[in-house]
Specification:
Elements lengths: L4 H18 L18 H13 L5 H11 L10 H10 L1 H13 L8 E12 L2 H6 L7 E5 L4 E13 L4 E8 L4 H11 L2 H4 L4 E4 L7 H9 L2 E4 L12 H21 L10 H24 L14
Parallel strand pairs: 1-5, 5-6
Antiparallel strand pairs: 1-3, 2-3, 3-4
Helix pairs in contact: 1-2, 1-5, 2-11, 5-11
Length: 304
């Protein structure tokens, strides 16, 4: 098996098709009689992953490209409004696909996780802020890593050191990172119940005796740098190199998978576009792991 976009797409299509057959409840609801799909759900998800990997943020431009170059893979392609609507309706299937692919890699059993959040900007002008359908969820926040204010959301991510997404949440820009992390873990208790000796590496924003006690109750051991005025904490020698790991994972999502110029204008639109990019990253890692590629988080083979 080779590492290229066509091979990944074929392997992904087969996996998603098997998932839909095994779990038909994951597919969007449709009339039982008189409804024939010209583009299957597996084809739709595969098409969405290819869009993210090839760097097309515009759905209209992507479909024009696909019609000209991908006719050998997709016998039918919808117009942009239909593609957009079906993609939004497939959010549940995309979420399930992320987990299925992740658990099918050797990276899933990594006993060290990293956690952090990164901005997902949704608008820059004051007029956009006043008129956007995202108002009330999106809000003003500050990104310390880039020393800038932004209006939008935050993607909270738990990942392995190899960059594999394990858990994630999309919140307002001011959401407390500690509460969100506990929410991710609480929504999926099996994540920690099956990993009694798991280590979690975070930055100084994940602090507090109560927070550490909550993590310890789930079986997680927290490693983070000491805050100002605190005594030196264990594992300090690990933080500098491993801090760069989580930053590079976020950079992969932003620079290579266009997380911030997502183009979403509604809650459902932004949500599915973020899920689309997490699935694309997971699919690339999954395929690289399957083909024994030397670098798991390299997307170079799939961006052209």
């Amino acid at each position: 098996m080779s590492n290229d976009i066509d091979t990944l797409a074929t392997a992904l299509y087969v996996t998603i098709d098997d998932l839909v057959k095994a779990r038909p409840d994951l597919a969007p609801r449709r009339p039982v009689i008189g409804f024939v799909l010209r583009l299957t759900d597996a084809e739709l998800v595969t098409l969405a992953v290819m869009q993210a990997l090839l760097g097309y943020t515009s759905e209209a431009r992507w479909l024009r490209h696909a019609r000209k170059h991908l006719g050998h893979m997709f016998r039918y392609l919808p117009q942009q409004p239909g593609y957009n609507k079906r993609l939004r309706n497939a959010a549940g299937l995309i979420t399930a696909a992320i987990r299925v692919l992740a658990t099918d890699t050797s990276l899933w059993t990594d006993d060290v996780w990293v956690a952090d959040s990164t901005p997902v900007e949704c608008g820059r002008s004051r007029e956009t802020v006043k008129r956007s359908d995202l108002a009330g969820w999106a809000e003003y926040g500050y990104c310390a890593s880039h020393s800038r204010y932004f209006w939008g959301l935050r993607l909270h991510l738990i990942a392995t050191l190899g960059g594999l997404p394990v858990g994630f949440a999309l919140t307002g820009a001011k959401a407390d990172e500690r509460e969100t992390l506990m929410g991710i873990l609480g929504a999926d208790p099996a994540l920690t119940s099956q990993r009694p000796e798991q280590t979690l590496i975070c930055d100084t924003n994940y602090f507090g005796a109560g927070f550490e006690s909550e993590l310890a109750a789930t079986g997680l051991r927290l490693l983070r740098p000491a805050r100002k005025g605190e005594l030196e904490r264990p594992g300090v020698a690990l933080f500098k190199p491993l801090r760069q790991v989580v930053e590079s994972i976020n950079q992969t999502l932003k620079a290579q998978l266009d997380l911030e110029p997502h183009g979403g204008r509604t809650t459902a639109g932004v949500t599915v576009r973020v899920l689309q990019r997490i699935l694309a990253l997971t699919a690339a890692l999954w395929h690289n792991d399957t083909t024994s590629a030397p670098v798991h988080r390299s997307l170079i083979a799939y961006d052209h």
